[in-house]
Amino acid sequence: MQNAFADQLALIADEIIRQKVVDVCVEALQTGNDGHGWDNMDFPFTLVIPGVKVSYVEHVRIVTDLAFQSASLLRDRGIPINQDILVASAILHDIGKPIEMAQSSDGTVGKSKVGNRLRHPVTGAGLAMKHELPYEIVQNIYQHSWEGDQGPKRTVEGEIVHRCDFLHFGPLKISLESK
Ligand SMILES: [Fe+2]
Questions:
Q1: DSSP per-residue letters across 37-50
Q2: How close is the Cα of 47 to the center of ligand 1, in Å?
Q3: How close is the Cα of 2 to the center of ligand 1, in Å?
């Protein structure tokens, strides 16, 4: 897991936060898939785009890289951004997905038992809270999708992660639909 996100984890300066991010990823991958765990992170990142070939690990890398690069531009123009909070939130934004999804015996991936009850922002935020990550990161995970539209107000870092998540999802969906 560390290897898959090595470039992204290296952007987190605080060793304690970095280790907790790893711990949360490991626990989600070990306890997801209806308790069977996942052997890798190659399962599709979304069930909303049928037949999508982009894996979970690829999506998380893309969103984290987009968030980091966007933050560099915005910081140069005067917007204060906490890089550790931003990168940790980006790496973990979809960490509820290994819990929300399960693979059946024929290899198809769908909703898990938990996933039929709780969306990934809830399970991801819950796991981050269990590992005592800063509340801003818990909030950013919980608010990365439409749950965050209800308030409380997103953090600056959470707003960037939210936009970058949809910056990958939206154009990808449109490009596949127009094929
Ligand atoms: Fe995402």
A1: --S-S-SBS-SSST
A2: 12
A3: 19
Report yes or no: 65 and 87 within 8 Å, Cβ to Cβ: no
Contacts with 152 (C-beta within 8 Å, 6 or more apart), sequence order? 139
Centre of ligand 1 to C-alpha 93, Å, is 6
Sequence letter at residue 50: P
Ligand 1 geometric centre to CA of 171 (Å): 13
pLDDT range class, residue 112, cuts 50, 70, 90:
very high
Q: Which fold has domain 6-177?
A: Hypothetical protein af1432 (1.10.3210)
- Domains of the chain by residue range: 6-177
For residue 56, the CA-to-ligand 1 centroid distance in Å is: 8
Share of the chain above pLDDT 90, in %: 93
Instruction: Report CA 98 to chain centroid distance, whole Å.
Output: 10
Tell me the average pLDDT across 119-145: 98
61-111 per-position pLDDT tens digit: 999 999 999 999 999 999 999 999 999 999 999 999 999 999 999 999 999
